[in-house]
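Case study.
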Amino acid sequence: MQARPEDAGELSTTDRTGLRRRRERGSHDRTVAQAILDEGLLAHVGVNDGGTTVVTPMTYARVDEQLYLHGSPANRTLRLIADGAEACVTVTLLDALVLARAAFHHSMNYRCVMLYGTGTVVEDDAEKLAASAALLEHMAAGRSADARMPSQLELRSTLIVRFAIDEGSAKVRTGGPVDEDEDLALPIWAGQIPFDLVAGTGIAEPDLPDGTAVPPYATRYPARGPVRNTDTH
Amino acid sequence: MQARPEDAGELSTTDRTGLRRRRERGSHDRTVAQAILDEGLLAHVGVNDGGTTVVTPMTYARVDEQLYLHGSPANRTLRLIADGAEACVTVTLLDALVLARAAFHHSMNYRCVMLYGTGTVVEDDAEKLAASAALLEHMAAGRSADARMPSQLELRSTLIVRFAIDEGSAKVRTGGPVDEDEDLALPIWAGQIPFDLVAGTGIAEPDLPDGTAVPPYATRYPARGPVRNTDTH
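After joint prediction, the assembly is written out as follows.
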């Protein structure tokens, strides 16, 4: 199997910035990749559609070493993967804008997983049900016990694809800017502006029956990752 | 030029959910696309790298009908685009998780732009400088006046690619879940959990010279889009 660009890049020492100053790290650590996948909500899935590269946002869920992608059988990207197309599944978390003294050194702190491979259609009803539950749990812990789970007809109308978390890599940039030594005395503010994806209070449908219990994730959705912004605005 | 999947999808009426109940809308409105591109911070850029689809997160900035992508000349995706590879540039904003009564109808509210085309390397120093300023302004309004702008050497070490905002589409889902009529009486909480990408207070580098002015975006980074979560936690 050919070397993947991201794998190759990880071992490279030809990058403009030497190792001593690098704030970006490649990793094949499964724990790192799993944490990113579990925190993220959106994957960007790339496939080759008759010669055109198409990148589509999709929901997903991880179960052990598998990623489940799902959608309507009319979803073209999913259909292509179901038919055997190779895909690249990328999940990126933005952690901070990194403002350097020099325009040239502005950057971003992020955590990213890129997975490569082919998917397999989930045909077995029990696995489809388990994947449906995992997709709901990935949205909100406890949701699969609260929602009405799929009927036979609904299961048949859902296309679920299993994608192995196998070939790929994670990339993480952390820390402040890396400026040139001669710029450090400039009176230019430099640092990080941290970002968090913050959930608000749930907006209930207006027609819920009286007495419908409000689940905890609807009133106080738990932080999906490390909470860094205590002073948000 | 072949029809793009997302364009085709937009006119389709074969989708499981009839038009009456659709909450997802395709659009070729440039205003919609520009607003999404201006609010976003990360693009996911897909290219075909010798037969393998690769999706990489990148920063960008919009200037009129052009998108600028930039990075080190060692950035493989950027080099491929510089060499003429077709790319798909997707920017997605997650607005809410949509929890339906039925597992089957869980969804997401999002705004997404997908652009297709080829890029052109920016060779002209004046345009490179303007693009560098735009990339900083996209991160934080006012930053290009504060930062040290690129030297000749730095300009030569930066690969900037111009990508026309021309072929593509936007897709937007809004509103609550669409459940089956027979599920509406179930005592299951349903609704939206809104999300915002929230900036925290800037974390200054420890070695800033005394008296360095703190810019407004470092203390109170402005909201990038419509503020929806007044009651965040």
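Observations recorded in class. Chain A touches chain B through 111 residues (CB under 8 Å). DSSP finds seven helices and eleven strands in chain A. We will return to this complex in the next lecture.
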